[in-house]
Amino acid sequence: MFIILHLTGRLVWCPFAGFIICLYCFLTRTHGYWAERGVPGPRPLPLFGTYLGQFFYSFHVSEEERLKKFGHVYGIYEGTKPGLIVGDPVLLKDIMVQHSATFYNRRSVKTTHPVMSNFLSSLEDKPWKRVRGLVRKTFKPRELKSVHHLLQDSCLALIASLDHAAATGSDIDLKNLFGAYTMEVISRSCFATVPDEEFVRNASSLFTFPFWRKFCDYTMPKWFLDSWLVQFTVLPKAGMDFFRNITTRLIADRLAEPQNRRNDFLQLLMEAKHEGDGLSEDEILSQSVLFYSVGYETSSQLLTYCIYCLALNPDLQDRLRKDLIRILTEANISCDADIPYDVLDQSDYLSAVIAETLRLYNPVLRMERKAVESYILHDQTGKEILVEKDMVVGIPVWALHHSDEFYPDPERFDPERFLGEDEDGWKKRARSKFANVDPVPFLPFGIGPRNCIGTRFAIMETKMALMIILRDYRLMKTAGTKVPLKFFPTGRPLLGCDKVLVGVRKLKTN
Ligand code: HEM
């Protein structure tokens, strides 16, 4: 009896153990890639590669720790796929600017959905170049001037919320305040709509997708996710279909009746032409949804952290307010009058405050490029590192912005970093144009041909809100203000934070 049981047990366990060993070997088959090439990096785990910690532990903290521990260039694994993280300013210039022709793609986004597969951010090669060329026209200064009035209208709700908080003496949650503002700005500019409950619900579904979606996107093979059975999309299909219906109706209305034409992004996208070529209806819809999903949360975060920093630094807030009031007085703009487009760019100090906020709390923690062909990088020691075709190169922006190698006392909010000149004559103000790699990396919007196409719009939207707020209100630290802020893991390279509370006082009565 004992012998039979023993044999049966062996019969069961041997294949099982064999299966586990084979699976382990399969899932770790590439995990020696970087060690064989002498490139340091975190230790990979089967199935997860080096990603597990970043999904469950704060992404930005782990990026900072890794840059300190492994240096400017280190290897990672997404599941079994090797990837490279590059934080060396000279190599970044090489990748993002000088050899951008080799690195203009990002990772392939797996989807069969017609909206998502046309996103400018995920298009590759010639289709990306074509759509980028057309969409770029939408963000030229003249075009932005024509949509500027939408910002002014969107500020009304912002002012009402601040008035309410000031009158009741209650703290205001900056995340809610600016979330509502930036959602209204983008809804008005892309969908000619003031957001109602249904709109907000569908829009929110585009940014709050569960982590397993992103996890599948990073680790599973493309053929599997694209298959008829799975038809995987990182963004939820219902939300995208909702926006598709709105846009199709708006485009049809505007084409049918010329008087339905409006000054907004949708119109600019409909009219963008290059050598007779224009965007198709699906392409217009894709870019509108994309502007929504990439423009809403990032811009709202920028405003939130900017006001938070000013509330914690009353002297800097006073200095900025003084400068803004001087500019508004010189331009003859009375107390509650609209703020014209041309005035928005006149304060160097305002630009410096925004730049320093973007350094300290840059919303996009890491950027990516993918090699269209093999390319050899030479690190500082002269060592050659081969970036194979289709390998993803990550740029650890948060870690670079928080490194004392580039920014002394990096946790201090100090807009002076972006004013005047360095001892060697290098213009710091150049950084406040929101893109620099060498000698000091400052990359809140990326750099090179694949940078953020909405930079000017985001800055315009931010400056408009800040000018209106600082002209009339004082923001203060209260017992409810958390110092320092606590960030939580979002499962994606975007900063995530709970409520950000500050107090508000109205400076004058109109
Ligand atoms: C503070 C606000 C914003 C920040 C910090 C931000 C940051 C970024 C970053 C870091 C990238 C990647 C750049 C690269 O890979 O080099 C990006 C790409 C992009 N951003 Fe923004 N963004 C902001 C607002 C906006 C807005 C308001 C829009 C549109 C209305 C927008 C549209 C885009 C698009 C379409 C891309 C992809 C461009 C391409 O692949 O060709 N962004 N953004």
From TrEMBL:
Keywords: Heme, Iron, Metal-binding, Monooxygenase, Oxidoreductase. The keyword Ubl conjugation does not apply. It comes from Hypsibius exemplaris. GO terms for molecular function: heme binding; iron ion binding; oxidoreductase activity, acting on paired donors, with incorporation or reduction of molecular oxygen; steroid hydroxylase activity. It holds the Pfam family p450. This is Cytochrome P450 3A24. InterPro entries: Cyt_P450, Cyt_P450_CS, Cyt_P450_E_grp-I, Cyt_P450_sf, Cytochrome_P450_3A. Its cofactor is heme. Heme binds at residue 452. Signal peptide: none annotated.
